[in-house]
Specification:
Radius of gyration: 21 Å
Helix content: 10-25%
CATH class of the largest domain: Mainly Beta
CATH topology of the largest domain: Gamma-B Crystallin, domain 1
Shape: elongated
Largest sheet: 4 strands, antiparallel
Number of domains: 2
Strand order of the largest sheet: 7-9-8-11
CATH architecture of the largest domain: Sandwich
Structural class: mainly beta
Distance between the termini: 58 Å
CATH superfamily of the largest domain: Crystallins
Number of strands: 14
Length: 197
């Protein structure tokens, strides 16, 4: 074996661990009667369905599979391979599926839910993070906020931290009950940018 070939093999061995760290493949299958099963994964960077384990198997995101603070979940017969993407900071978008309460987040920051009572699709921000424009599906669509060991959350009615500001120090299970001062309107479905301190 030449020294060039040995050097190439050594470089490949050193490089492979870093490549595998960037994205991870996980196989996840429901219980024997189709019941929901969680597969442990850090899902903050997002998860993509690679392929169902068998042809013709139904695996629809938000129905037979999804991901939240508990990891990747599958149910109703969906067994599949998933790609877990590396997290690079910023908010992470989760959905626990219809009829299931979101898994509790163990981080420090705040979570923002589309439904009252901390339910439905949601995303979380760590302390010190912000979003200057919420994406479609969340812009002007937040109905409850849960603070998880953060000092405060500042919400804004417009993009880029503009419009009316509101400051929270405690959970708000129903934004319909919290009014924007001087307007007579509630904060429900009126948040476009956020800071978490």
């Amino acid at each position: 074996m030449t020294w060039q070939l040995r050097l190439a093999i050594l470089c490949g061995m050193l490089l492979l661990p870093s490549l595998s760290f960037a994205q991870t493949r996980i196989t996840c299958a429901p219980g024997p009667h189709g019941e929901r099963v969680y597969c442990a994964a850090d899902t903050r960077g997002g998860v993509a369905l690679v392929r169902p384990r068998f042809p013709g198997m139904r695996c629809r995101q938000g129905i037979e599979w999804g991901f939240d603070a508990g990891g990747i979940w599958v149910e109703r017969g969906c067994a599949a391979d998933f790609e877990v993407r590396e997290y690079h900071g910023g908010p992470w978008w989760w959905n626990s599926g219809r009829g299931h309460r979101p898994e509790p987040w163990r981080g420090t920051g705040a979570c923002f839910y589309r439904n009252v009572g901390y339910d439905g699709p949601y995303f979380c921000l760590a302390r010190g993070e912000s979003v200057n424009h919420l994406p479609p599906g969340y812009d002007n669509a937040i109905s409850s906020i849960q603070i998880v060991r953060a000092n405060r959350v500042i919400i804004f009615s417009k993009d880029n931290f503009g419009g009316y500001p509101g400051e929270l120090h405690d959970d708000v299970p129903n934004l319909r009950q919290w009014r924007i001062p001087g307007t007579g309107k509630s904060w429900n479905n009126r948040i476009s940018s956020i800071r978490v301190d």
